[in-house]
Amino acid sequence: MKHTPQAPSVADADSSGFSVELGTDRPMRLDCGVDLGPFTVAYQTYGELNADKSNAVLVCHALSGDQFVASTHPNTGKPGWWHILIGPGRPLDPAHHHIICANVLGGCMGTTGPASIDPATGEPYGVNFPVITIADMVRAQARLLDHLGIDKLFCVIGGSMGGMQVLQWASMFPDRMHTAVPIAAAARHSAQNIGFHEVGRQAIMADPDWHGGNYAAKDVSPSRGLAVARMAAHITYLSEAALRRKFGRKLQDRSQITYGFEADFQVESYLRHQGMTFVERFDANSYLYLTRAMDYFDMVADHDGVLADAFTGTSVRFCVVSFTSDWLFTTSEVREIVHALNAVAADVSFVEIDTDKGHDAFLLDEPELHATLGGFLSAAAEKLGFETP
Amino acid sequence: MTDDALGRGQAEQAGPVHYEIRGDLKLIADMIAPGSRVLDVGCGDGALLTHLVKNLDVDGRGIELSQAGVNATVAQGLSVVQGDADTDLADYPTQAFDYVVLSQTLQATRNPKQVVSDLVRIGAKAIVSFPNFGYWQVRWKLLLGGRMPRTGILGEDWYKTQNIHLCTILDFIDLCRDLGIVIERGISVNPQGRATGFSNSGWAANLFGEQAVFLLSSKNS
Q1: CA of A288 to nearest chain B CA: how many angstroms apart?
Q2: Could you confirm whether domain A193-292 is CATH 1.10.1740.110?
Q3: How high is the ipTM of this complex?
Q4: Which one of A302, A366, B131, B180 is least enclosed by Cβ atoms within 10 Å?
Q5: Which residues of A fall within a CB distance of 8 Å from B78?
Q6: Which residues of A touch B80 (CB under 8 A)?
């Protein structure tokens, strides 16, 4: 990794990133009972680790995200998915923080997942890949930190599925982190969300090119199914108000309806574009596994119905965030986390950001979100007195 | 410890060394031991919390009803959640804080009796301040004017006010007796901000105090 101190621009960060093989000596026991190892974790870092290793921040990515949080995506050429939050003078600043973002276990951007080669067969795992959970993703990240020699993170932060990982981190490894920032995430996946995920999975599995998950062997890919899955999911990331504001009933490059099934409406054209571009960078089987991991996430059940027990005695400082128009993870669901944290007298801040941009607001330019995160992180850093490089 | 915290605050914010606060908040702050754990219920713009954290090295948390207020105080680096004294205090565990503060909020709660008993359950001590409806000007205005009195700190029309459960100092003393709560200190404050401690029946305080500050603890502690 090459860093030029005088030019801490994130865009200049080495985009090839890092990759490490873990679990060679000691396989990792997954929740499903399978021992996985060795496995690969692909990750990016931004900013220097300081001398006492106190400024490391782990960013956990969402379902369709990856490790390219603040650098140009190698496949799409687009800027990092959270470049708006990471950069000089932003809440996460490579001049102060050592930012780590790893592709999750089960992902498709270099970390071991269903598209990886199964050493037992020499073929891609496909659906023979073990079913993984959010906790398994977190265990893999903890192994990565062991490898990097980082005992304690300054912060674990993420939105949506990333926020689930943050909560799991705080529950499993409270001594390895100072602060936790779960954004637009709940402690358990709702019936409605499991329902949406099932629609997406059925779309993939109904594509004849899926071939029971063995599409790689046939040199095809269930792109149509994956695109439909993405289109349906994308609606849930927005809000009715945002769709109305952005598209309304506006027609796409035409002055009247065509009495056919072309994309007459702008919203159709937009969703088709979202579906088409997604398949260029995402593996269909990965989509099955990661949505399943989210469905299985239930920290309430993990603690016999008492979520507060997940955080008993925690010294982690929390900043919990929700968005008014998020119907995937509603404020009332997010508030359950806050209630549980209050019940153990944890140090918690909770902000609800007023926006019509829906769930995806966590990825967008929301000045109030950035102001609160900036205030929370700088106060925490001041309290801990961590050195900047 | 406090000097160190002050030094950092100064370096970061390039502001004054001491964070000044309103007189009534200062009275509350003076009851709080440095380095303690404090929950400020209805923390507003975070003025008291900021003072406690920066000047007294307190581990401070806040609850505030207004989401805009919460977001602004979190952006200042304070630990605050959006919540309601009536519904959310029940979540907090017993004796989790050294002090729980309820400043000028009691009269706006739906169930003040429950709120006060929650305060002394959650904190080893509770500090409660409220406008005194027994203040002589209030009595005078009602007696002579025959209309709902409007004074300095009770300045709103009856149909606009959030204050649905106003009480006098004597009423509050009665409530504490009913709940078995120990009044460790009582202070009345006149409109000039002069504070007078009272330890007797509270009769004079009830007449001359525009507002009151109480330091409470539960009998069993």
Answers
A1: 36
A2: yes
A3: 0.82
A4: B180
A5: 349, 379
A6: 349-350
CB-nearest to B71 from A347, A368, A378 is A368
What homologous superfamily does CATH list for A10-190+298-384?
A: Alpha/Beta hydrolase fold, catalytic domain (3.40.50.1820)
Q: Distance of CA A52 to CAs A3, A98, A154, Å?
A: 19, 12, 11
- The encoded tokens of residue B112 equal 């003040």
CB A21 within 8 A of CB A39: yes
Q: What is the rounded CA–CA span in Å between residue A190 and residue A252?
A: 35
Which of A343, A353, A374 is closest, CB to CB, to B93? A343
Q: What is the pLDDT of residue B154?
A: 87
Q: In chain A, which residues touch B (CB < 8 A)?
A: 317, 319, 338-339, 342-345, 347-354, 368, 371-372, 374-376, 378-380, 382, 385
Q: Which of B75, B92, B97 sits opposite A375 (nearest CB)?
A: B75
Condensed to tens digits (0 to 9), the pLDDT of residues B112-149 reads 999 999 999 999 999 999 999 999 999 999 999 999 99
Compute the average pLDDT of residues B163-188: 96
Closest chain B CA to residue A351: B71
Taking CA–CA distances from A342, the nearest residue in chain B reads: B92
Q: Which numeric CATH code is attached to B2-218?
A: 3.40.50.150
Q: String of b and e for B127-159 (b: at least 16 CB within 10 Å)?
A: bbbbbbbbbeebeebeeeeeeebebeebeeeee
Alpha helix locations (H) across B45-127? 47-56, 67-75, 85-88, 112-122
Between residues B150 and A221, which one has the greater pLDDT?
A: A221
Residue spans of the domains in chain A: they are 10-190+298-384, 193-292
Mean pLDDT value across residues B174-186: 96
pLDDT of residue B19: 57
